[in-house]
Design brief:
Blueprint (H helix, E strand, L loop, with lengths): L7 H23 L22
Length: 52
Amino acid sequence: MNIGHSDPIDLLLDNIQLQYAAIIRAQNMMYVREQEDKIIEQIGKSTRKVNN
């Protein structure tokens, strides 16, 4: 698809469809089945060194 020659309505529709897909994907990631359905988060020291 050549964006420079596309109809603005087609670009708008493409953007709406991309955002809709992103919303559906985010809902699937955030879905919780029950109260015990959660990600366990570990907090601790990292062994990696960051070079600046």
